């Protein structure tokens, strides 16, 4: 144990909460990435020509959910927000599982689940980071967040792998029920973290934040958005997310079109989407373990963030010169693993969030994440009307079936 503590730069007593944080992210991301291929399949089942409607629905739903989330954060004790929200999601998943069991081919049910999972992704992941930002001090976050984020990478690899293996025998309804069970485990890990912090209070200079963890945040539901709008640091992150998500929307529409053409069976579609996700996560883990830290130390985090849009730009040029299905898959994998390994999963933005005040963490930490959801939805609902209706003749949409 002493060797492992030194190896992972842990202080005495930190190993149990780090394991709990890792489990929290592992279970959450295993469930989400097991359901993500199901969501993509439901987007195809609802009609590729209707994807712009699904993006519009996601956009509207997100705008409705954000004030509700802000209202909950302002009136419920901070340590109760995640259990309440996750409990609601668990009930939703069980309801969807029962409905898919009885009506597996219902297109409106497929469209509803597509929008629901997009909103779930927004709230659930930002809440998990908020728990860690609330439990750990800034100094601990700098040392430990990257390690706990490894649970997300591992869950992102196990989730699609499990989906590929289990979707045929369990069907989509079984995967939803299994994801609900994993989410129950995430709630247990989060509550254990709060109880651990209760038994091991922060240092004396951080006692005010320690005491306020048990009360609601107060304020109004829009405080988080207002603070982002007037803080250059947060606005910079938000603008980066907006631009990156907007460009990625074009690739997303082409992905749905090409998979629908090549794989008409819903189970096969889920397996294909899961295989892409599994490849992305494997590359992300390799990059995080062997490359990300070294590059960040030598060149800085800014280089990592800039690399992703540059890779996407190069991918668009390659796709214009060689518009084949194989090239498209390579570009999608490169784009997504770059985001996960360098922009999202490394815990860098979340580590910086520990500099925010205690009242602003749950609100502002979900605001850029909400922009991730709102931007592709808003852009997709406009790009989709143009691209899906008027761009059928573009090379990628008419790419040959074989690589």
Your description of this structure?
The protein has 403 residues and is mostly helical. Helix content is 83%, strand content 0%. It is built from 14 helices and no strands. It has helices at 2-7, 15-45, 51-75, 78-102, 107-135, 138-199, 207-212, 223-230, 232-262, 266-299, 301-321, 325-344, 348-353, 361-390. The radius of gyration is 21 Å and the shape is globular. The protein starts with a helix and ends in a 13-residue tail after the last helix. The model is unreliable at 345-358, 360-373 and 381-403 (pLDDT under 50).
Index terms:
403 residues; 83% helix; single chain; 14 helices; mainly alpha; 0% strand; disordered C terminus
In short:
This protein has 14 helices and no strands.
How is the secondary structure organized here?
Layout: H1 2-7, H2 15-45, H3 51-75, H4 78-102, H5 107-135, H6 138-199, H7 207-212, H8 223-230, H9 232-262, H10 266-299, H11 301-321, H12 325-344, H13 348-353, H14 361-390
Helix pairs in contact: 2-5, 2-6, 2-10, 3-5, 3-14, 4-5, 4-6, 5-6, 5-14, 6-10, 8-9, 8-14, 9-12, 9-14, 10-11, 10-12, 11-12
The proportion of residues forming helix, as a percent range, comes to over 70%
Structural class: mainly alpha
Compute the number of strand runs.
0
Unreliable stretches covering 5 or more consecutive residues? 345-358, 360-373, 381-403
Beta percentage is under 5%
Give the terminus-to-terminus CA distance: 50 Å
Question: How would a textbook summarize the main sheet?
Answer: none
Shape type: globular
